[in-house]
Design brief:
Blueprint: H1 3-7, H2 19-32, E1 39-40, E2 49-50, H3 53-75, H4 85-111, H5 113-132, H6 139-168, H7 172-213, E3 215-216, E4 223-224, H8 230-282, H9 292-331, H10 336-351, H11 365-391
Antiparallel strand pairs: 1-2, 3-4
Helix pairs in contact: 2-5, 3-4, 3-7, 4-5, 4-7, 4-8, 5-7, 5-8, 6-7, 6-9, 7-8, 7-9, 8-9, 8-10, 8-11, 9-10
Length: 392
């Protein structure tokens, strides 16, 4: 029996005692979607994986499904002929980004499959250090929240697809390509959000431990560390923080490019949705007659961007809170050795901080502001092009 099969009973084991018992369901979810085409070898804690013939075959199946549906979408699915050419271009760009996201994610995570599992292994190592410091990791609560979040995502996607069929009717190839591309986008956002939450939950746990351990006594200039060797404790804080930065980089390595393409696709859809609304109103139609399905799908893409941004912003905010705690500890101490260690920790934060990013821009609220500004500019250009075409 392989390590993968031995780990399946952990799905319904309660209470949860470590990260592997929580994330085995997430791993299987990745495997079904083609993002984890490898098998666990030996004990979960060992971090060993292997790629079996079945894993390679499943990778090829997932790859073939993407390429086949992408080809069908380009060659078979009919496009509306009574719409603006600019809207037609926008539709093709959106489909292109959807399938490119899935194709890139499957290939990338197969080539670097060891990195996917190393994320859980390194989280386990960080957890052992946090537990040694007295942190409460709330594994069972985290597991239930992950299941609830995934179920809500699936239900929401099901409702949207039912609404799409009711709005435009059912045609096998059109519905198949539509369902696969949007379901894949939803799954990627869910996977990324869960992976990002592994980082921010541990940053929160580290900050909670630091806030508990660093207490001002009666004299505000004296630091009290609950009977521990504070210099050694700070070294532990620094080591854990550095490992959390490594975890953030692993999440970026595994998923950030797919997320960047997803954000680009969502941006394209929302841009041309707004453009379509403008054209609809310009033709003296009532805004209330606009397609309800299009409006609902625009909400879906907005929620996808906001969820990605919320996870990244939380990670960045908690990293800044760590710096604030160190500042407060420095102000509360008169011991030169303690101040020196805390200053080194603060310097470490200045050189390295946990940031979810694709390398071009961070996934935080500044991304939303950039999208709004860019959308306004492009909308003006699109309206001008459409006016020029109509006047010819």
């Amino acid at each position: 029996m392989t390590g993968t099969l031995r780990s399946i009973p952990l799905i319904w084991k309660f209470p949860k005692r470590n990260i592997f018992e929580c994330m085995i369901l997430h791993y299987l979810f990745l495997k079904v979607n083609g993002y984890a085409c490898f098998s666990i070898s030996g004990e979960l804690e060992s971090g060993k994986t292997r790629t079996t013939a079945v894993d390679r075959a499943w990778f090829l199946v997932c790859l073939a499904v993407v390429v086949t549906l992408w080809t069908i979408n380009i060659t078979v699915v009919e496009r509306p002929v009574d719409v603006s050419p600019l809207l037609s271009i926008g539709s093709r760009l959106m489909w292109f980004t959807c399938y490119l996201t899935v194709l890139f994610g499957i290939v990338w995570n197969f080539l670097y499959r060891d990195k996917v599992w190393s994320l859980y292994v390194n989280v386990f190592k960080v957890d052992q250090q946090l537990l040694a410091l007295g942190a409460n990791m709330y594994y069972t609560e985290m597991y239930l929240a992950m299941i609830g979040f995934s179920l809500v995502s699936f239900v929401f996607m099901g409702v949207l697809n039912i609404g799409h069929v009711l709005d435009v009717g059912f045609e096998l190839w059109e519905f198949s390509t539509f369902l696969y591309s949007n379901a894949s986008l939803m799954m990627l956002v869910t996977i990324y959000s869960i992976a990002g939450s592994l980082v921010w939950l541990r940053l929160w746990a580290l900050n909670s431990v630091m806030e508990r351990d660093i207490q001002g006594s009666g004299n505000p200039k004296i630091i009290q560390v609950r009977g521990k060797d504070f210099v050694q404790t700070v070294r532990q804080y620094m080591q854990i923080y550095d490992q959390l930065c490594d975890l953030t980089e692993t999440v970026n390595f595994c998923y950030s490019m797919q997320v960047m393409i997803t954000v680009a696709g969502s941006f394209v859809y929302l841009l041309f949705f707004a453009f379509g609304v403008i054209l609809f109103i310009k033709e003296n139609n009532s805004v209330f007659d606009f397609s309800t399905a299009s409006l609902v799908w625009s909400v879906f893409y907005i929620m996808s961007i906001l969820l990605i941004v919320a996870v990244g912003s939380t990670v960045r905010h908690l990293g800044r809170n760590t710096a604030k705690l160190i500042d407060r500890a420095i102000d509360s101490s008169t011991d030169a050795e303690i101040i020196e260690m805390l200053s080194l920790f603060l310097m470490q934060l200045g050189h390295r901080s946990p940031t979810l990013t694709c390398g071009l821009f961070p996934f935080d609220w500044s991304l939303v502001y950039s999208i709004l500004a860019t959308s306004t500019t492009y909308l003006i250009i699109l309206v001008q092009f459409e006016n020029s075409r109509s006047n010819e």
